[in-house]
Amino acid sequence: xxxxxxxxxxxxxxxxxxxxxxxxxPTYAGPSASGVAAHQRQVQQSKRIVVKWQGFQRxxxxxxxxxxxxxxxxxLVCRPNATMLxxxxxxxxxxxxxxMAKFETKDGTDRVAVKNVRVYxxxxxxxxxxxxxxxxxxxxxxxxxxxxxxxKGSAYGVISQRPGRNRPGGGPVTVPVTSFKLTWYxxxxxxxxxxxxxxxxxxxTDTDQQLGLSWHGDDEAATQQTSTTTIPGFGxxxxxxxxxxxxxxxxxxxxxxxxxxxxxxxxxxxxRVDDPSxxxxxxxxxxxxxxxxxxxxxxxxxxxxxxxxxxxxxxRAWVLSSYQVTNNAAKPYLDLCExxxxxxx
Length: 345
Description:
single chain, seven-stranded antiparallel β-sheet, disordered N terminus, mainly beta
């Protein structure tokens, strides 16, 4: 996949309203009935939780949870009969997504699998509310049942939220976006008393560095198909998500310093890590002096990206999730675009 010619026109600006962060994590008001966040605060927060136990312990702790600002909680579970990463949303009416690129050895080969864990009431704008999930959902880490005796793997991902699909998506992201890195290792699960498990989850939330765009239905897309976000020290990120067969879905950076370049990687589907249809990496995309941009480059329609922007000698990695339905001619109200990105821990 190659970069598309630049044709970006900035139509909307994403504004962050900031308040001081107190000693404890702030709480956030959920979306109002109109689908617009009632209040937004600035937050920069990093957390790390670990589940670690051995079979000889009298009271091993099999699970541990952490807050996800503005969204709910995420929980690690490592039991001899259940291993998972679980997300619980405070508001089931919203569209909550945990995207994860999972890496492990399976059947003797190194594999990647992109997973999208959702919590929602309305699966689509046409849903009557009976097709949704419960208050929580999860992604299992074991490969089979009963759980294998030994397992080792890693993952990274992004957690985001926007109004439910029965409501307008709201345009630029307003609810905090959280990234994570996860590792897991267990062994001797078939030998009670000798079992061992360790899971580590690192979380990062930084509303100054996040970006995103969501719309639900072609009517909203007519006014919400672009967003721009100022990223301190790097420049202005530009997202475009158009409807129609010839619509563009791209991301670009207008860097603060022409001494800049961009690396990016697509992660989609499930299969071998050496299969370019699942992982495709592009390096050293240079600054274009004619347009003043790094990019634009295509967004995946149903998958994830890692993006490394290097500006003025500072390099940082973002993780991005992207899900799009942009060509439902028979039911254009079911078209949608949901994009979220934030720096990795």
